[in-house]
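seq as requested:
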Amino acid sequence: MSENEPRNAGAQQRNRNADVHQDRNSAAKSERAVFDNIGLTKRNADYMYRFNQALQEQPKLSVDKKSEIVNQMVADLQEGQRTGKIAKNLFGGDVHARVKEIVEGPKRDASAPDPYWPSALYNGLWFFTIFSLMFGILYIVSPSAQKNGSPVGITSIILSGVIAGLALPAIPRMFDSKRKHSLNLWIRILLAILFVVAWLVLFYGMAYLPGFLNPVMTPWAQLVLGVLTGVGAWFVKQHYDLRQGFFSGNTQRRR
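struct tokens:
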């Protein structure tokens, strides 16, 4: 091999790198020119160019969806320019934050209530967890309580969880001063008291059901169910970004 061969190979590689770099610059200029030639100001065109680059890196969105987003933002910018608004005013100064907001959805107002049905599911699961763990531990520590007393069956626990789940998101709404209520305050208080009384009556009344309708589970089975529903409640909270409710840890954020 002659001395010129490595030199020639190195020169060819540098030329290929230069070509790739030149192609990238050319593509970037072409992409930028698209926004320069649609009636946007220089500042707005630069924003849309940077936004589009960041958006194209998102694998969660289809090509058509990305195109729809860009076209809508361009239309909003063209409209905003008539009154002197710029992209920063309309969409914020950080293009990556704007892309994140589009992909993940806008952040929910900290004072906004949790959606009702996910909140009901979350609270219901937590109450089921509490009752299952409580009675499971009780019957392990004191087996006589299950044999000689009036053990709580699985139907009673499920009913308690369902009622608690439906009620806990609803009762705070009944007394929310920011909401318009059709019922008098004292009527709402009376309804809440009646609900608690009905809940207790149903819970203890279930003990008189036949065993096949309200079977008593073994203590360890109750503990396993309690752990599983607790994990389920945690996943519901994370998935729906719940901030109020039982064990949510953020009940004060509404104030």
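The chain has ten helices and no strands.
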